[in-house]
């Protein structure tokens, strides 16, 4: 009598059952995935739609400032500030800073978003410069020269503006724009270099013993570091003003926390929106320096 199949050496289960189990293992997961995927997608669809509606302004900003800008940079071989300057050359009046600023605003609204200060924030800046009548202003972050023109046209007679731009190619565009507006090097001096390297040299190389007003517009991550550098090199007089843009978007929380908690500043926050994206809330911080304490 032959050996039963379940006791044969090397075999622990019925071959027919093994084949059936393997078939089930292969078929069942596919069936489950096929039936569950549409259900999962439908469950997340309301959330996706809600996010798209709620944050549609941020998506528009992302597409305009990253995707489309990168594509245009590649196709034209020019940066956005260079394309904007070409537009200014053909549409603005030389020697008229107000008309040049209006032309840049029009370019940003109707052609490409420029990521500049814009007219609403610009009015805050100009009003402050006119009220303070500073003898010397330091701007960290020239970019295309928009805020530089705002400051320069509001300076009192004999006022001086030092503006610092890290990127040489961007600085070259800003230099052309500043001179096109009619401001010479005695009134507006553009320094190419990082703020971290320039600030310690302001007193010795640029004869800047103090600055009555500082505009921080170069990048929120650098604000706290550069404010402390200005303090360390005694460039801020008592009563001096520091104006910082973009403190709410993308935001400068460490800078604001320091200014409010160190006891050396009186703080005021102007709530605004981004140019051409008013639904995206931003703000300008005005700090008044009380002295080293």
From TrEMBL:
Localization, UniProt: Endoplasmic reticulum
InterPro entries in the cross-refs: SAM-dependent_MTases_sf, SAM_O-MeTrfase
Main location group: endoplasmic reticulum
Keyword entries, A-Z: Catecholamine metabolism, Endoplasmic reticulum, Hearing, Membrane, Methyltransferase, Neurotransmitter degradation, S-adenosyl-L-methionine, Transferase, Transmembrane, Transmembrane helix
GO biological process, one term: dopamine catabolic process
Keyword Acetylation: no
Cellular component GO terms, alphabetical: apical part of cell; endoplasmic reticulum
Gene3D superfamilies with a match to the protein in the record: Vaccinia Virus protein VP39 (3.40.50.150)
Molecular function via GO: catechol O-methyltransferase activity
The EC number(s) this enzyme carries: 2.1.1.6
CDD domains reported in the protein's UniProt record: AdoMet_MTases
Catalytic activity: a catechol + S-adenosyl-L-methionine = a guaiacol + S-adenosyl-L-homocysteine + H(+)
Transmembrane segments: 36-53
Family as reported in the entry's similarity comment: Belongs to the class I-like SAM-binding methyltransferase superfamily. Cation-dependent O-methyltransferase family.
Record's function text: Catalyzes the O-methylation, and thereby the inactivation, of catecholamine neurotransmitters and catechol hormones. Required for auditory function. Component of the cochlear hair cell's mechanotransduction (MET) machinery. Involved in the assembly of the asymmetric tip-link MET complex. Required for transportation of TMC1 and TMC2 proteins into the mechanically sensitive stereocilia of the hair cells. The function in MET is independent of the enzymatic activity.
Protein name stated in the entry: catechol O-methyltransferase
Record organism: Mandrillus leucophaeus (Drill)
């Amino acid at each position: 009598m032959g050996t039963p199949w379940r006791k044969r050496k090397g075999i622990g289960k019925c071959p027919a059952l093994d084949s059936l189990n393997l078939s089930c293992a292969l078929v069942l997961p596919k069936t489950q995935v096929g039936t569950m995927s549409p259900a999962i997608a439908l469950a997340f669809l309301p959330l996706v739609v809600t996010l798209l509606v709620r944050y549609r302004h941020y998506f528009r900003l992302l597409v305009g400032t990253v995707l489309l800008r990168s594509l245009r940079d590649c196709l034209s071989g020019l940066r956005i500030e260079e394309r904007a300057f070409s537009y200014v050359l053909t549409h603005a009046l030389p020697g008229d800073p107000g008309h040049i600023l209006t032309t840049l605003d029009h370019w940003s609204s109707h052609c490409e978003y420029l990521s500049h200060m814009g007219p609403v924030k610009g009015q805050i800046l100009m009003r402050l410069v006119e009220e303070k009548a500073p003898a010397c202003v330091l701007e960290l972050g020239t970019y295309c020269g928009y805020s530089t023109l705002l400051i320069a046209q509001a300076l009192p007679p004999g006022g001086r503006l030092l503006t610092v731009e890290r990127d040489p190619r961007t600085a070259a565009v800003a230099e052309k724009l500043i001179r096109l507006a009619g401001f010479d090097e005695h009134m507006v001096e553009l320094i190419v270099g990082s703020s971290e390297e320039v600030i310690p040299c302001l007193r010795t190389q640029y004869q800047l013993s103090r600055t009555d007003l500082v505009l921080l517009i170069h990048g929120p991550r650098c604000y706290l570091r550069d404010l402390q550098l200005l303090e360390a090199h005694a460039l801020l007089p008592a009563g001096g003003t520091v104006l910082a843009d973009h403190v709410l978007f993308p935001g400068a929380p460490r800078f604001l926390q320091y200014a409010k908690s160190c006891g050396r500043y009186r703080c005021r926050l102007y709530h605004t929106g981004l140019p051409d994206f008013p639904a995206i809330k931003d703000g300008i911080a005005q700090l008044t320096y009380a002295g080293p304490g």
